[in-house]
Amino acid sequence: MTVLRAQGLGKKYKRNWALTGCSLEIEAGHVTGLVGPNGAGKSTLLNIASGMLEPTTGTIEVCGGVPGSGPDQLAKVGYVAQSTPVYTGLTIEEHLRLGAHLNPRWDDSLATKRVERLGLDPKQAAGKLSGGQRAQLALTLGIAKRPELLLLDEPVAALDPLARREFLQDLMESVAEHGLSVVMSSHLVNDLERVCDHLVVLVASEVRVMGDVDELLASHHRLSGPRREVDSLPADQHVISAKHTDRQTTVLVRTEAPILDPAWTVAQLGLEDLVLEYMSNPVATRPALEVLR
Amino acid sequence: MTWLTWRQFRLPALSVFAALVLIGVVLGITGPELVGRTNFSDQDTMFGGTILVLYLLPAVIGVFWGVPMITRELESGTHSLVWNQTVTRKRWLATKLGFGLLAAMVAAGLLGWAVSWWASPIDTLAAAQTDRGMLSRIAPVVFGARGIVPIGYAAFALALGVAVGMLLKRTVAAMAVTLVVLAAVLLLVPNFVRPYLLPPQQMTIAIVGEDITNISGDETGAVQEIGVRNPAGAWVLANETIDPNGNVASPLPDFVQNCLPRPGGGPPERGGLEQCMAQLGAHGYQQRLTYQPGSRFWPLQWLELALFLAMTALLTWFSFRRVRHLS
Q1: pLDDT at A291 exceeding the cut of 50
Q2: Over chain A, what is the mean pLDDT?
Q3: Which end of chain B, N or C, is less packed with Cβ atoms under 10 Å?
Q4: Residue B28: per-residue pLDDT
């Protein structure tokens, strides 16, 4: 089942396009990481998916409906904005009350337990929370609403490493417990590696690569050997990037088949290196894009 | 949504209502003392103060209720929190506007009623006056501080604050713009709209010396115009001298320029003045009064209330259109 389907999605702010011709499909039941450099359109995409923004061009379908089209649609999609906004004048308790009043599917015991487990004082004003606690409160509201899809826009960007780890761990537990789909954006691959089983790399509004994290890792190889032309590689090896020195050639290829050429030294890549390779080589690999699902 | 709206709105709402209670107590204590008196010259401060308060109320409502209702959410980003609960933007706005408009209209209605009650002995006396000494309740400034039009002003101010807040998205800028626009509307309507809500009445009367209430001239001493007694309790829009052809005579014809008392030339003699005016009459000059009679107070109140409620509806419609495209 597809939880998010975008086609030719574009958004123009006054004069600048923040997103152009973005098409992608995200499967339900996964934690999908959305990575890309700053300005790739990650936030814009999530904002459109949540209904916060209207697309200028293209269409988008989230959980089978148009984002923000009505109460039913809103109930299905949870969204935590990058700034993890909370009402500074309201206490944590009042935030939960807000959630209970505004969401018919609100899970009060889940929210209360979560706040308790996080060690937050329900009587405390949200304005006095630390960045991490605020993010946790915003996430609590997102989860206790019991959506089908939870959209998180850079949820850990403002957190220190420890708070970041706790936040993500906690998110993982909640996801496992309630079986919801999650799409979260980040420009830090390390964060995503910890929690995501699917990955979408977005560069300049285009999906550069997407797929199951384990499959991506297994199918990408860094080959190094004596200098040669990349044209001479087998047809099933898609070249992502190639570097040449006087005597040596290093290429990143994607292939399902084993590497048979004995001239190559084959090495596996970490997820971060893989993503960085895709981000920094926007043109060379265009043909390889469509095949990657 | 009701709970959240009330939770957010209760502090500004209660502050204003607390101030209103205070004002109500002051009026309640001083009001009964005015009954039966025939001279209110010692009440100028209170009279002016009550009017001022009624004009300040819509300003406060627009600036401190209307504007922050929207901009505080937009500035702190909480709109993205609340719009992602199971509540449509329309319902969010409808609840906020509903609360705000209701509170604004109740506040203004109560204050308007209290002040109208307090000032009723003064207004009754003013309604019998024919010179320019006391302002009747239909006179421009007083009119807006009596009866039911304050309700319209308050509703309009709130809707204006909300609409401007949505347009500018920044609290301070939106507050300033709201204040300026509100002040402009409250100045323009009494001067350019209210006089014509109902076609003004006219009457042409013979100029009699003892009816003359004012004579004004230019810097050279030439007399530009004279005024005569007003119909009791009326709002006079024009008090003009017209020649036999019906044209406005300003400055007055030469033959009276010489016999009228000069500014700074000491108090005029009654006899001389009447003789002088008799000349005007003999040459076919008359005085024409254009005015809204005091009996039109309530019709004008209802019409102006309707006008402001219509403007409120327009702003509300705009806000609902706009909220769809906010982000």
Answers
A1: no
A2: 87
A3: C
A4: 94
Looking at residue B268, its pLDDT comes to 61
Span A80-88, mean pLDDT?
91
Instruction: Print the SS3 string covering chain A.
Output: CEEEEEEEEEEEECCEEEEEEEEEEEECCCEEEEECCCCCCHHHHHHHHHCCCCCCEEEEEECCECCCCCHHHHHHEEEECCCCCCCCCCEHHHHHHHHHHHCCCCCHHHHHHHHHHCCCCCCCEHHHCCHHHHHHHHHHHHHHCCCCEEEEECCCCCCCHHHHHHHHHHHHHHHHHHCCEEEEEECCHHHHHHHCCEEEEEECCEEEEEEEHHHHHHHEEEEEEECCCHHHCCCCCEEEEEEECCCEEEEEEECCCCCCCCCCEEEECCHHHHHHHHHHCCCCCHHHHHHCC
Point out the residues of chain B with pLDDT beneath 50: none
pTM of the model: 0.89
B83 contact A CB<8A = yes
Task: Check CB contact under 8 Å for A74 and B1.
Answer: no
B85 touches chain A (CB under 8 A): yes
B76 touches chain A (CB under 8 A): yes
Residue of B nearest to A81 (CA): B80
CB–CB contact B84 A47 (8 Å): no
Mean pLDDT over residues A106-113, rounded?
91
Instruction: With CB atoms and an 8 Å threshold, state whether B76 touches A47.
Output: no
Per CB-CB distance under 8 Å, the chain B contacts of A145 are 85-86
Cβ pair A79:B84 closer than 8 A: yes
